[in-house]
Specification:
This protein has 5 domains: 1-158 and 750-778, no CATH class; 165-287, no CATH class; 305-568, no CATH class; 664-720; 785-865, SH3 type barrels. 43% of the residues lie in helices and 12% in strands. The protein contains 34 helices and 26 strands. Helix 2 (33-42) crosses helix 33 (759-777), helix 20 (405-418) packs across helix 26 (554-565) and helix 21 (451-464) crosses helix 24. The longest helix is centred in the middle third of the chain and has 28 residues, at 311-338. It is elongated. The two termini are 38 Å apart. The relative contact order is 0.07. Keywords: DNA-binding. Residues 801-863 form the WYL domain.
């Protein structure tokens, strides 16, 4: 463990020399509670579990996994600042005042590596951000990068810079120049000889860092030498060369240490003459003019506006899409409640069922996959868990149907906003599966943890534009890349590392953005590409820090979105227009009862601005099978028609009703009963009835070996209208029961790391860390033990007094003496500093055990104030 992370310090410097913090732990110790809270909020992984003191916090902040996660949260310029800081020479910790005045400060070196007025203006902010995330520590004039971050950003360096001259020579191995060769390099460079290799390297590095002398040296180079250097200028800094017979320009560069042999055999150690050379960092910086990056991006690229629409047009279009979304989800689940699709053995929905669902919804298969995943994210559909497992609506679907349209849509949007399952991946091959099977809707492998954050950032950028503005997608893509440049890099590395780490390629953030925009338009979050005004509460909730990015509070935010959407939705209609061609036209959304009734009585012929329903003998029979009588149908249509009921529709209902139930089907295996023996004779003589194997039992009864459901279906195909009957002769309603799963909870998003802590947890954690650090840094000297409670033995108090004392100690931060009985019945006395009392447990720093612990309140026998020794 490095001394940078721990509190252990080297020998104390001279008191006359100003000194900064010597370790990251000392730096954190000097920060106030607000700064520590900001650190824990920005890096919530440091809280799992709560560190015992600031030394533990510093150690955890320097671990590789935590540093990688912190670097991924940086924007482009903050990351470029960290990359530049990684190549700045690192002086001794805490020696800010011990260096000569001529030595440039780290800030001055950074200004040279990051030139330009814009970079200079934003550099302090970038350094402050790195310091707030504990990636940088030390005095302001000498900021130091955390060692782990330096290692990550220099091996290899994203800037394309190689090692320093001294590092290159030290790593040369068998090709390391001898002391005499270094003296020859000094002579070739026109420098005086030195007494040792260290001073020789120092003299050469000083030459390479002096622009005037370096320019003069390169002016004397033979033709082709500078072009060799230019090939390595922006990286990678390594090049292959035949070291046994190098070309003259390379010989000239090697003689002056402008190129250094690495000793690495480019042929993989096969004994060939090929080798490699490296361009020292000092030489590359001179060639670059002192710049660390080819392209410096200190400011975020603007999101350009492609076109604009009136706000009313945007909201109207989005509201129309919102109503379409509700209708589509209802149609999806209405079909699945009567014909639930099976669950594949490997999980998910089969290809045929996806195609069947797409045809039923009249949408492409990718769109069908989106609606299916949306219903699943909202908790409206799930697996029933039966032996023959199928997908069916959940009981929450019935509750959702009873809600107002705006509330139903808000629930869908909040579920989409925070979901980590990505429907756009459906159909792609799962690289984590050995058989490379295609990813299926509702199946495993669709979770991508960055998805909620990408949706949040995309919508936030749309919200920052003027109302009605449609962003240019290319500009939006560049802006998101600037905000999180390492997201795509990690995804690409993960995909290259192996199938177990696949993240859908290096361009996953871009694909997530494209999917987010397309899904937002389909769902009604945007209208004609611009953000709808009624969605802004959803975006603002996360922007204000009320929840983690991509995870707005469902109830409060959903209610706000529903209230904002309601004025934009049309009032549900209670009437339809019945026409003589046996159709009904609904010019807008219908009331729930009317829509459900028409869905049974008629077939949807077309959808759009208006919905057209068609009445057929089959649809009327379907309503009669559901228990409706002809009188019910006439009355309902008369009550909900804006015009008189057309005569053809009346005749159709009466004709179907007259024949409905005239033929009865029961179990014999099955039988057909009818009072009209002529009709039975007609059925028996029909060739289409041959598969039923009918035989006449009586003038009014036919027997069949087919099951009743097959007998019913065949007779209907033959043009009859049979009705099923019970063993007592009563007519049975043949409508299929609506399937429902047992109660199910919506799927939990697979978050990328621990969730963001709330203010209460942050305050308690900071208090616990401070208490532990105070105990750890106290001088260890003999002291009298704290006085036990009066009377000796364990403290004894009633539960109400114990709870009140604990809560008071939590607010004041004072330690208390407790009696505690563990699970084995062993009693002990402890001195604790309570930091949180919640849910029947107290979290406290235990001075006896020197760590943070959680105690059940029912095991605390009593509490007393700590007395003086």
């Amino acid at each position: 463990m490095s001394s940078e992370q721990t509190g252990a310090s080297p020998s104390r410097p001279d008191a006359s020399q100003p000194s900064g913090p010597r370790t990251l732990a000392e730096d954190l110790r000097s920060r106030d509670d607000a700064a520590l809270s900001a650190l824990l909020r920005a890096r919530p992984d440091l809280l799992s579990p709560v560190p015992g003191d600031l030394t533990q916090l510093a150690t955890r902040a320097g671990t590789r996994a935590s540093v990688v996660r912190a670097l991924e949260r940086l924007d482009r310029f903050a990351l470029q600042t960290a990359e530049a800081l990684a190549v700045v020479p690192e002086g001794p910790a805490g020696s800010a005042g011990a260096e000569p005045r001529s030595t440039p400060t780290t800030e001055e070196l950074l200004s040279a590596l990051l030139p330009g007025d814009e970079a200079a203006a934003r550099l302090p902010h970038a350094l402050a951000e790195l310091r707030a995330r504990a990636l940088v520590w030390g005095p302001p004039q000498r900021p130091r990068l955390v060692r782990t971050a330096r290692e990550l950003l220099t091996s290899p360096s994203p800037t394309g810079l190689g090692p320093t001259l001294a590092e290159a020579v030290a790593a040369a191995g068998s090709a390391k120049p001898s002391p005499s060769r270094l003296q020859e390099a000094l002579a070739h460079a026109g420098l005086p000889a030195t007494h040792d290799p260290v001073s020789a390297l120092t003299a050469l590095a000083a030459l390479f860092g002096d622009p005037e002398r370096m320019s003069a040296l390169l002016a004397r180079a033979p033709e082709g030498a500078e072009s060799v250097l230019r090939k390595l200028e922006w990286g990678p800094p390594y090049g292959a060369v035949d070291l046994t017979a190098p070309p003259p320009p390379v010989v000239w560069l090697l003689e002056r240490a402008l190129l250094v042999p690495t000793g690495a055999d480019a042929a993989g150690g096969t004994g060939t003459a090929s080798g490699s050379v490296v361009l020292p960092r000092e030489v590359a910086l001179h060639l670059r003019g002192g710049r660390a990056h080819r392209e410096l991006e200190p400011t975020a690229p603007p999101v350009e506006v492609a076109r604009s629409h009136a706000t009313a047009t945007v909201d109207g279009t989005a509201a129309g899409q919102a109503m379409t979304a509700l209708t589509t989800v209802e149609e999806l689940l209405a079909s699945w409640e009567t014909e639930p699709p099976p669950v594949l053995r490997a999980g998910g929905l089969g290809v045929r069922d996806l195609k069947r669902t797409a045809v039923a919804l009249d949408v492409p298969e990718p769109a069908a996959a989106f609606w299916i995943e949306l219903a699943y994210a909202a908790g409206l559909v799930a697996s029933d868990g039966e032996v023959d497992e199928t997908f069916a609506p959940t009981p929450a679907y019935d509750e959702w149907l009873r809600a107002a349209p705006a509330e139903r849509w808000a629930r869908l949007v909040t579920a989409w906003y925070r979901a980590t399952r990505v429907a756009g991946l459906v159909g792609e091959r799962d690289a984590r599966d050995a058989r490379k099977r295609a990813l299926a809707p509702l199946g495993p492998g669709l979770d991508r943890s960055p998805a909620p954050e990408v949706r949040h950032r995309t919508l936030a950028l749309l919200a920052a534009l003027d109302a009605g503005s449609v962003p240019d997608r290319a500009a939006l893509r560049e802006r998101l890349r600037w905000e999180r440049p390492l997201r795509g890099v990690r995804a690409g590395r993960a995909a290259a590392d192996g199938p177990d780490e696949d993240s859908s390629g290096p361009d996953l953030p871009t694909r997530l953005m494209e999917w987010a925009l397309d899904e937002a338009e389909t769902l009604g979050v945007t209208g004609r590409g611009a953000l709808a005004s009624f969605v802004r509460p959803l975006v603002e909730a996360a922007a204000l820090g009320e929840a983690a990015p991509g995870e707005p509070p469902a109830e409060a935010t959903g209610d706000a979105v529903a209230r904002a959407l309601t004025p934009h939705l049309p009032e549900p209609l209670s009437e339809v227009l019945l026409q003589a061609d046996l159709t009904a036209v609904a010019p807008g959304p219908l009331e729930r009862e009317l829509s459900a009734f028409l869905g049974v009585l008629a077939d949807v012929e077309s959808k759009g601005g208006a919905t057209v329903y068609r009445f057929t003998p089959d649809s009327v029979r379907r309503a009669l099978d559901a228990g409706r009588t002809a009188a019910d149908l006439h009355a309902f249509l008369a009550a909900h028609s804006s015009t008189p009921v057309p005569q053809p529709l009346t005749y159709l209902i009466d004709d179907v009703a007259r024949r409905h139930g005239q033929v009865r089907v029961g179990a014999a295996s099955s039988y057909v009963r009818c009072d009209d023996d002529t009709l039975l004779a007609e059925i028996l003589a029909d060739r289409r009835a041959a598969p039923l194997r009918l035989r006449l039992l009586a003038p009014t009864v036919l027997a069949s070996q087919a099951p009743p459901d097959q007998l019913l279906a065949r007779l209907r195909e033959m043009g009859h209208a049979p009705a099923a009957e019970s063993a007592e002769g009563d007519v049975l309603l043949s409508r299929a029961d609506a399937r429902r799963t047992p109660p199910r909870t919506p799927p939990e998003p697979v978050t990328d790391g621990p969730p963001a802590p709330d203010a209460t947890l942050l305050a308690a954690a900071v208090r616990a860390i401070r208490a532990g650090d105070h105990a750890a840094t106290l001088p260890h000297k003999p002291t009298a033990p704290a006085a036990p409670p009066p009377g000796g033995g364990l403290p004894r108090t009633v539960m109400a007094e114990t709870l009140a004392t604990m809560q008071s100690a939590t607010l004041t931060g004072t330690p208390v003496w407790i009696g505690y009985v563990n699970a084995d019945g062993a009693a002990s006395q402890r001195v604790i500093a309570p930091v949180k009392v919640e849910g029947g447990f107290v979290t406290a720093y235990d001075h006896t055990a020197d760590e943070v612990r959680t105690y059940p309140l029912h095991r605390i026998t009593g509490v007393a104030e700590v007395g003086e020794g």
